[in-house]
Amino acid sequence: METQRVTQDQINSTLWSACDTFRGAFDSSEYKNYILVFMFVKYLSDVWKDKQKEYEEQYGKDKELISRKMKRERFVLPDNCTFDYLHEHRNDADIGEKIDKVLAKIEDQNLEKLEAVFRNISFNSEKLGQTKDRNRRLKNLLTDFANPILDFRPSVLGRKEDLIGNAYMFLIERFASGAGKKGGEFYTPHEVSEVLARLIAPKQGARICDPTCGSGSLLITVAEHVTDKSGKHSNDFSLYGQESNGDTWALSKLNMFLHGMDAAHIEWGDTINNPKLLEGEKLMKFDVVVANPPFSLDKWGYDEAEADRHKRFLRGLPPKSKGDYAFILHMIETTLPNGKVGVIVPHGVLFRGGAEGKIRQSLIEDNFLDAVVGLPTNLFFGTGIPAAILIFNKARKTKNVLFIDASKEYQEGKKQNTLRPQDMDKIVDAYRKYENIDKYAYCATVDEIKENDYNLNIPRYVDTFEEEETVDIKATQKEIEKLEGELVEVRKEMNKYLKELGF
Length: 503
Fold this sequence. Notes:
By secondary structure, the chain is α/β, with parallel strands linked by helices. It has 19 helices and 11 strands. Strands 3-2-1-6-7-9-8-10-11 form a 9-stranded mixed sheet, sandwiched between helices. It has a two-stranded antiparallel ribbon with strand order 4-5.
């Protein structure tokens, strides 16, 4: 009889419960890295243990052959560098130091894929409390991860190894939700990533990049939507990304690994001031470039931009205090002649004048802009402002621009709104049809956009005004007279009952 498989919800809730070790003592922005790193180590250990058992069953006592086979796996765990080893030593007075040594050894053995990913984290740090409190917390954490529900061996999960990647994404989203303004810096809500991926529709063989990749969620979602000519999912793609925050960069590397995308090339550094994705001295070019850049970033690098050796700002310098178009121009310049760009922006990008207006005009005149999609308010972590998705296509066959107003169709939440499946489907269907839909979508000509001084504010193109129903004055007056008459009768009856009661 087959053992009952654990569900995604069971894994998610067990992992979230493990955070109780730190709740109340630290902010989630502090302890999230400890939880996510521990989950990663548990995953590596369980996969390693499963593979070793498989080879032992296959090759018996030939330890030398088994050792050679194990060293050819996608990662290598040195001796005494497993979760089981740490769990056995959970009561040791130097458990924090032991965990740090294990992480260092794992990194040294897997430099190509895991170099520097643990550099900013120490389980022997006073951040986790003084020695006694720290040891207690680490023992609790090891005990929580020893829960049978968190058995990540492929032989136990069966074909559902995606449960691990999904669980990692679940944790990142929960941490982002509780991180306030900082939450939006490292995570794009899955529904928004899903819409953007479906609008871009990446094809087999695509080279895909996210120049502000955060924890990698958007990049992974786009990769999961790569299709072959028959419309089936294809694993024939390559992923590239860059992230300026070192801690978040490390999370993205682990995220890629847990999703089986550890061949992804993710760089650490400031994309605008220090682009790392290069071929020789030139910017690397991609078939698809997607991003959710920081909204209206102040101090984005204006003073250095004029001398930019990669010539990304020939269309004009974005304003000193708003970096939105700096990222957009970088994305345009790193896209191949037949490539696509999908970028999430605040609405000001659509209509602000000055330098931004000139850049916007240039992009429209070059016939790159394909669609403008207005999203509902309060979808993103840390900000309630509405955002829009801009789709650029360098190989467009039309000169019209599609405007979609999807701002009114969503599921309202206590803290945050979400897009429902039907809301996402409606956006994607409207984009594929690329035609007028009453009060929802409008296909504007370049002449119309020019008449509006290249202002892309969605209400200029999509009329969502609902006329109020005409009031029939005579009928309303009769209804009022009828209600007043009924009220007189009710009062008479009420007074009668009050007299009978002696009032």
